[in-house]
Amino acid sequence: MPTTPQPEDLASLYERHHPTILRYLHRLTRDRDRAEELAQETFLRVGRGLDQFRGDSKITTWIYRIATNVYLDEYRKTPLPAPSPEEGEAAPGEPPGSPARSLPKLADRLFEESEMGNCVREVIDGLPPDHRTAIVLHDLQGLPNKEVARILECSLDAAKIRVHRARQRLRARLAEGCDFYHDEENVLRCDRKPPGKQRPS
Q1: What gap in Å lies between CA 38 and CA 23, rounded to an integer?
Q2: How far is CA 138 from the centre of its chain?
Q3: CATH no., domain 98-197
Q4: Which own/partner pairs from 67-71 qualify as long-range (CB within 8 Å, at least 24 positions apart)?
């Protein structure tokens, strides 16, 4: 009679997955100490649930799901600040060739580069939690839509819609609030637009 493959022990799982989960939670919270606390809680829950893991999904998917639930539980208790008025919902319509339209393809680099990172992070902070987790998982963690759907425990179509809507908001708000340009080394940069030049929401 076949048996369910046993997962690694907790110490091995922690060593292998903690850096990735910490990075994911830091991208969601933008607070290193808070992310570390949530990562610790994630692996406490992993340890408590390891005996019940049946192998219905990959172990990485299961750990991501736990981390996401830990983050959402914390968010409901102490949500991040709401976006400021100038970062409110903007109408779509930036030109097809604008840098903002191609942002999802460059999301990880833009998120890490200091010149553009602040703008991108502020926009992601202002997204609803379901959109924020979807775009971080897909565009920053590099997971496919099927994996995002499993982690968020929603249908594949719902996952695609969340990623698409998050990208729309990201593009619209960046186009509204930032001026994009290439510097003398042809590197894409952005400057925050003065308040008077930002498009009204």
Answers
A1: 11
A2: 7
A3: 1.10.10.10
A4: 67/21, 67/24, 67/25, 67/38, 67/39, 67/42, 68/133, 68/137, 68/151, 68/152, 70/25, 70/38, 70/41, 70/42, 70/45, 71/25, 71/28, 71/29, 71/38, 71/129, 71/133
C-alpha span between 99 and 101 (Å, rounded): 5
Domain boundaries, the chain: 10-77, 98-197
pLDDT tens-digit profile of 2-14?
A: 444 455 788 999 9
Rounded to two decimals, the pTM is 0.71
10-77 carries CATH number 2.40.160.10 = no
Number of Cβ atoms within 10 Å of the Cβ of 40: 14
Q: Where are the beta strands (DSSP E) in the chain?
A: 178-182, 188-192
**132 is written with which tokens?**
């924020």
Q: Which two tokens stand for residue 137?
A: 């998982």
